[in-house]
Amino acid sequence: MKSTRQNAILELIQERNIETQEELADELRKRSFKVTQATVSRDIRELRLLKVLTHEGSYKYAAADKPENGLSERFHRIFSESVLSMAHAYNQIIIKTLPGSANVAAEMVDGLRWPEIIGTLAGDNTILLIVRQIDEVDVVLKRIDDMLR
């Protein structure tokens, strides 16, 4: 439940300009999560969310990336907990995730900036990775598999 809620938080702050913990809690309740202000506060701390200035001059929550690989430790854990299976054909890799987790998992893959991956496309529970060349697919699959351990 915690992982699913935190996935939802990451999606919400990417989709909307969430300015306050109360606003974030309200949005989570709209998605059927039962949360308190203390729960939201703890999630914000664990996800290492920051308040950043928007173009309009207001502040919003955003995910803080660490310099190493451009990802937070939490983002990596959410990815590894969300992925259910992988398959490939030619230069395409399909990753199946828990429902509602594909966007966050795809964002994590995008953040890796692997030169072999030329693009990702995410639905609700499926990610499509396009790999530059067929002979690079096994390398990408191995790296993803290593991340899941």
| Morphology call | elongated
- The percentage helix is 40-55%
Number of E-type strands: 6
**N-to-C order of helices and strands:** HHHEEHEEHEEH
For the termini, the CA-CA separation is 21 Å
- From the coordinates shown, what is the CATH architecture of the largest domain? 2-Layer Sandwich
CATH class of the largest domain: Alpha Beta
What is Rg?
16 Å
**Strands side by side in the biggest sheet:** 3-4-6-5
Number of helices: 6
Strand content: 15-25%
Tell me what you see in this structure.
The chain is of the alpha+beta class. It has 2 domains: 2-63, Winged helix-like DNA-binding domain superfamily/Winged helix DNA-binding domain (Arc Repressor Mutant, subunit A); 79-148, Gyrase A, domain 2. It has helices at residues 2-15, 21-30, 37-46, 73-82, 102-112, 137-148; strands at residues 49-53, 59-63, 83-89, 92-97, 117-122, 126-131. The strands form 2 sheets. It has a 4-stranded antiparallel β-sheet with strand order 3-4-6-5. Strands 1-2 form a two-stranded antiparallel ribbon. Strand 5 (117-122) and strand 6 (126-131) form a beta hairpin. The radius of gyration is 16 Å and the shape is elongated. Residues 66-71 have low confidence and may be disordered.
